[in-house]
Amino acid sequence: MNLKEIMNAAEIMEGVLYRTPLVPAPWLSKKIGGDVFLKLENLQYTSSFKPRGALIKMLKLTPEQRQRGVVAMSAGNHAQGVAFHAQRMKIPATIVMPIATPSAKVERTKGYGATVILSGNNLAESEMKARQLVDQGLTLIHPYDDEDIITGQGTVALEMLQDQPDLSILIIPVGGGGLAAGCAIAAKAMNPDLKVYGVQSTACPAMIHTLYPERWFMPPDSIALPLAEGIAVKNPGVLTREILQKHLTDMIAVEDFEIEDAIDALSMGGKVVAEGAGAAGVAALIKNPELFIGQRVGIVVCGGNIDSRVFSSLIMHSLVRQEKFIRIKVRIPDIAGTLGKVTSIIGELGGNIFELVHQRHFTVHTSKMTDLEVTIETRGREHSQQIIQKLNENGYTSHKILG
Description:
44% helix; 2 domains; Alpha-Beta Plaits
């Protein structure tokens, strides 16, 4: 695995895969007083970078291997990458996916003609099933721990540095490490002084735990589903960890709510739709701007396969955290005209009433008093406080509530 092999892989991809754009992100650049560019792999075929490595690996299959078919375990994006090429190359493909994989990724994988088996609670458990199918004669297309896969993924950084040779930092999401490993090999060969940061979610910081055991410990098993399921890999690659140990500048951990805010920021600020894993790099920059002050930073938006229900829900969660949507409880006397006075105060201050519940019975007050539960669209935290303060000044005891 070296720059020459990655460049050869890039030549093979010409005319088969899409060379995704590297676009400026001025709304992020302002945060660091530098220049930020986004590599939009969410626009790649199958909406992620995964078809790159899958292509290089599958072109090396023997006629016998092609006839018997391939198998892959994946939380979704690698599945679609393998299925996409298998359909083009007329190779039978079986994909083993964790039970909780978003339905959008399952259906898209089936749409490419692959047989999908839902097995296991995570990628490690899905791999056990995939290994059983290997014993039955199928060829495993590993999602990250394979030299050809790593080489193919390295073309992402190659293209970034061809488009912007003066990038000083790359930020790359890390699951099993195939993308980051390939990109680190290419980037360091092209510019030894360039810094490479990996990013993981604290919901599954397996690579951080592997590279920096003194810093992070694996969280206990939980019924909670990680937002960035595309990088929720409990068993990092052996090849990839060695490469990252040699080339990474550092690893950054981000919380799921920070990833949610990054997805919101990408959609609003950049008009870019990203899944959890795809937004992790942006979350890292927003969380740690001091690491990137004045630099020219390239961030890989590695995927855009997000379930529409999840996308709409997390956008609302993000708005609530920013207090652009608030829910307040207002104590009022149960007298005709009071409701109108309260709504007038909110409206005069520019608040948009989204929902109102007049709670007369389920309250701790006497029959002469009642509660209003009002959901309001605001301009943000300062505006929200102005509304609550004005209601209190007019004698209507008010406070923000959650839930």
